[in-house]
Structure formats: C-alpha cells, structure tokens
Give the backbone structure.
Amino acid sequence: MNRLLIAAVLLVTACGGAAVPPATATPAPTATPVPKPDRPEVLLATTTSTQDSGLLDVLIPEFERRTGYKVKTTAVGTGAALALGARGDADVLLVHAPSAEEAYMKDGNGDRRLLVMHNDFVVVGPATDPAGVKDKKVSDAFRAIAAARSTFISRGDNSGTDILERSLWKQLGIAPDRTWYVESGTGMGQSLTVANEKKAYILTDRATYLARRSSLQLDVLVDKDPLLLNVYHVITVNATKFPRVNRPGADAFADFMVARETQGLIAAFGVPQYGQPLFFPDAGKREDEVR
C-alpha cells in the first residue's frame, strides 16, 4: 500500500498537480486592539465654530480610534461651554475666548489649559457694502456701520465671537441701536444664514465662513487686523473640584489635541477644499508667539 501511495503521488506531481499541501499563508498583521478605558465616555464642550467648520468630524474619530474613548460633544458658544465646565458638567473644553478662559482658570474650575491653534475673525457683508467698510481696520469698519445704520447681525450668545464683538463696540464707546443691530441668539453657522438673508454685516470666524461660503452671498470685507486674532485652547476641567469629571479621559483628549500628529491634521484641514488651511497649529508656542 505504501508503494502504491508513493506512486500515486509521483504521478500527480508529474502531471503538474500539487503533490504537497500548500504552506500555510502567514496571516496579515492586525492592528493591536486599543484597551477599553475604565470610563470610556468623554464629555467635550466646545464652540460651534469647531463643529460648523467640520474640524471635529476629522479629529474626534481619530481620537476615538487611537484611544478607545468615545466623545459626547456639546457645541455651544464659549461662554456656555465654560459654564458647563464651571458646573462640572463637562470633562474637557475646546474654546476661544482668552479673557473668559483666564477668569475660568482663576476661579479654579480648570486644571490644564493648553494652546492648540488659531485662525482669525473677519467681517463679512454684502458685495454692495452699503457702509463702505471694505479694507478698513475693524474699529473704523464698526464706526462706519454704526454711522450708516447698516444692519449688523450679532450672535448675542456669549460665545467667543460675541465676546470679541461686544468688546469692540465697548472700546469704541458705541451702544448699538436695536433698529439696525439684530441679535440672532444662535451659533455661527445659523447666524451667517441670518446675515445672508438680511444682506447684513456680521463678525465671523474665517473657518465657519469658508465652510459655508458656497451657500452665502457675503464677501470678506475686513480682515488681517491684529484685533481679529482668534486663539483656541483646550482646558481640562478640575477633577479635584468636580469629582465626577473623567480626568483620564480629559487628559487623553488634551494630550491628543497638542500631539504632533494631530497638529499636522489641523494644519492640513481645509486645504483640499478651500485652497487654504482653516486653522493654524500652535501647540508648544508661547502665547505671544501666535500671529
């Protein structure tokens, strides 16, 4: 029987068949599973600009993939985001109102505050530019809008944008007249829609404007003024003051936002679609180095 079996094998081999079972293929390498954190949910309170621009749609899935955490996002104005943190109702904040952030930290509500990125604010309005603000400094543009009583849309929501806008009117000693000054009480994207419908002027962050530009008939009329710098920080909520805060999750998100790979994603965001970045990475810089 052994001789017959050997002969059969030789016959198959001579006919070009596979005499020997094929070697077992080496399995393709698989990604090392990320250990599931003990508390996997991270509560992020952030500004509407990071959501309306689409940046969070890029960063959050990457954070979740790398760390195993799951992010629950609340996108509101910076003032509302800071208020959530001040009640311990968020784990980590991504906001853009430095003066309000500094007060928040002074009150002991935050633990770590890290510089992440910047872009800028712009004044947009109808191409007809009824107040003649094009290429003026922002202070002169606001004066011209008030003098012409041209419709101006304010967010009126204590967001970072709203805080800057109100501070500019205050510096100029102008109390906007409600006959031409309209508060939308909503986020940046919706406020731009209102301005578009009313053919009005509005202060907006450039990222949200670019993300919505195709649906708007509003042009950038005022920009590149140092007063319009828009700086973002990530802040972890003080887990000693608020024990329910997910400190490991908050720290993981803060570390992710300033990591080199994430800063690269921020630098590239928007370039394919708009021909320019929507945000500029700043991790590791001093505050006075941001331009």
DSSP finds twelve helices and ten strands in the chain. The two ends are 87 Å apart (CA to CA).
